[in-house]
Amino acid sequence: MAKKLSFFIGISLVLSLCNAFNPDNPSGRRILVLLDDFAIKSSHSLFFNSLQSRGFDLDFKLADDPKNALQRYSQYLYDGLILFSPSVQRFGGSIDVAAILDFVDSGHDLILAADTSASDLIREIATECGVDYDESSMVIDHISYAVSETEGDHTLIAADDFIKSEVILGSKKIGAPVLFQGIGHSLNPANSLVLKVLSASPAAYSANPKSKLTQPPSLTGSAISLVSVVQARNNARVMISGSLSMFSNRQILSIKCPEGWKLNKKSGNEQFLTELSKWIFHERGHLKAVNVRHHKAGEGEEPGMYRINDDLEYSVEIFEWSGTSWVPYVANDVQVQFYMMSPYVLKTLSSDGKGLYSTAFKVPDVYGVFQFKVEYQRLGYTTLSLSKQIPVRPFRHNEYERFITAAFPYYGGSFSMSLIDYELRQ
């Protein structure tokens, strides 16, 4: 009986791993959603339904559930993690801060949302990702605010300072400001991987709305980040928000108007969250490179080595995931290096518009072990890091020209001296 049970457990594990993230098909992934309360599942159902309609399998659990686990038998059970549990003091099961950071370090994606009840645990995860939440405060804006029940504190703000990136937020402009009520954060200046996606207006500041302001706020204006993202060097993506209510049905469907808005204008929360979640879960901005080739000009086979001054051709095909299929990626800034300790050749690849990038160049007059290297980093896109090693040899003794043009004067001098010597001997 025990053998049968272990057999079925093994089969179920294999099936779950078959649904894991596949770089060649970045859809159909499993996401663990950790909640403070199961009521969030219904109050934020529009956001969850958007993910499920795009093929994601959501597994809802309480954050302190003792059966929580991100991996089993050293294999990850999920490809994404959503933390909608800002007040949790300690995760249940085998999940802790180190486990979540290892999850991201292994190339998996994370969405973290906090609010004024954010625990030290949630703040620590954000700090490790390069974000520092402000302490005991909320973002307040007396100009770009929305009508709320707590008239006067102006903590329900309307933000429309978005990052200028079509790959992160989509090609269609966000049609309305995003309603935000929560805490702001600042970015660690030493972390170049974190980006502000939604910033507060220049009139905003971070303070405690329940107490009198006695000193200048620590965070003001556009320095306040409301939503930030991180793309790690391993292409894992992280979204960090200072508002959990931003994801709620109430703020997605809200048509209450801040001063200056047209009447009955729906908030931009739904469009903003849908487009941003597409990027977070690699439905957009995900690149792959295939068919990396190089060969001598006029030949088709890849040689084992090159000779100095050989003419060669290099090509690679690059595609982008559109959410349903791979489409050709078109750009004019993909470069290849012919590298040994430093780049001897740097060439921009030309595109045929169908995903094929190619170039031709002459092998430098230096022999050794070289590499073809493509290091492609562009805002919002996954990093491509390609390398292929190839040795370069000098001419063999029988490959040099019999007579070197530049040496003709020396040849002439040698023959003339021989002729003079012959004449003197006569």
From TrEMBL:
One GO BP: protein N-linked glycosylation via asparagine
Pathway: Protein modification; protein glycosylation
Cellular localisation: Endoplasmic reticulum membrane; Membrane
One GO CC term, this protein: oligosaccharyltransferase complex
Keywords, comma-separated and alphabetical: Endoplasmic reticulum, Membrane, Signal, Transmembrane, Transmembrane helix
Pfam families per record: OST48_MD, OST48_N
Signal peptide: 1-20
Main subcellular location: endoplasmic reticulum
Domain OST48 N-terminal: 30-280
Membrane topology term: Single-pass type I membrane protein
Domain of life of the source: Eukaryota
UniProt domain OST48 middle: residue ranges: 294-418
Function, in words: Subunit of the oligosaccharyl transferase (OST) complex that catalyzes the initial transfer of a defined glycan (Glc(3)Man(9)GlcNAc(2) in eukaryotes) from the lipid carrier dolichol-pyrophosphate to an asparagine residue within an Asn-X-Ser/Thr consensus motif in nascent polypeptide chains, the first step in protein N-glycosylation. N-glycosylation occurs cotranslationally and the complex associates with the Sec61 complex at the channel-forming translocon complex that mediates protein translocation across the endoplasmic reticulum (ER).
Family: Belongs to the DDOST 48 kDa subunit family.
Quaternary context: Component of the oligosaccharyltransferase (OST) complex.
Name used for this protein in its record: Dolichyl-diphosphooligosaccharide--protein glycosyltransferase 48 kDa subunit
Organism whose genome encodes this protein: Dillenia turbinata
